[in-house]
Amino acid sequence: MRRVYTKKSMTEYDPRLVAPTCLYLASKAEESTVQARLLVFYIKKLYADEKYRYEIKDILEMEMKVLEALNYYLVVYHPYRSLSPLLQDAGLNDLNMTQLTWGLVNDTYKMDLILVHPPHLIALACIYIASVLRDKDTTAWFEELRVDMNVVKNISMEILDFYESHRMFTEERINAALQKLTLRP
């Protein structure tokens, strides 16, 4: 669904129809098909609101629009595939570094990075962040790779900006909750 909206506007494609259509399409891509009629049945059962009253033909029509928006390309490569070999090549495959970089990669799925950047560069950015956090000198290794370090650093900054904004959001919510608690008699 996120990939669709990197190409199309939410005003053009209604998210209330795109979401179940993407679920339907994903189930087909993973070869565990959910029938469109069952999807429509459960949507109607869950939502009494008229905004969610879609028929099978609506989902099937949207399926074609979603496929066109994605250029019929449903495969998404993930940073996990390249992460382990890269860590091993860098000599950073101890449990501590592996867990840290794996966690960083997990968190990148909360952003749109996977839709914008190649997966190996995301893995490299996570390794870069982890090596800085653990004071591991990987400069020579990154130079051997002959990758554009500006891109790796930009991806790293996007990840760190996400953490910063998420931390600020969490702190604001905690402070607001504490404020409400102190105002009660």
CATH first level of the largest domain: which class? Mainly Alpha
* CATH architecture level-2 label of the largest domain: Orthogonal Bundle
* Helix share, percent: over 70%
Give the amount of beta strand, in percent: under 5%
What is the CA–CA distance across the termini? Answer: 46 Å
Q: Could you give the order of the helices and strands?
A: HHHHHHHHHH
Q: Could you say what the CATH topology of the largest domain is called?
A: Cyclin A, domain 1
Low-pLDDT runs: none
SS elements, strand count: 0
Radius of gyration: 21 Å
**Average residue-wise pLDDT:** 87
What layout of secondary structure does this protein have?
Elements: H1 2-7, H2 15-29, H3 36-46, H4 56-69, H5 80-90, H6 95-108, H7 113-116, H8 119-133, H9 139-145, H10 149-183
